[in-house]
Fold this sequence. Notes:
Distance between the termini: 57 Å
Structural class: mainly alpha
Mean pLDDT: 89
Low-confidence stretches: none
Number of domains: 2
Radius of gyration: 18 Å
Largest sheet: 2 strands, antiparallel
Amino acid sequence: MKKVRTKQVIPLFMAGFAVVFGWVGVFKLGFWNPDQGPAPGFFPSIMAVVMFLTSILAFIQSFKEDGTVKYEKQELLVIASGAGIILSTFIIGLVGSCFLYIILWLKVFEKASWKDTLIILAVVAFIVIGVFGLWLGIQFPLGLMEYIL
């Protein structure tokens, strides 16, 4: 009998996470408002479907691969930085955490210039604040800033 490995467990865990994410998006946040268009759960619900389908595909693909999984330093850095965003969200909020992540990643790991970093940050800020915050009306977690403001 084959051993169960992380390449089977992680896709199943992510598929379960996608189901919860989609349920919250559709039933708690709302998917579509007939009068105003997309509701705050519109984008999370779509991303949940994509995440669910890719998780199932990754699970099926894991049986076709032989050998053990080797985790490289760069891959673990991405996972650690994602965990860092989640943890710092409780302190400085989601938007601040994402902006800090972009700056740190581009300056420290990619060695990008300040000009390129600020241009990318401005584009991301426009998308996050303009599209998600204003147009879709998503309320981002503010972390401890919620109590200060």
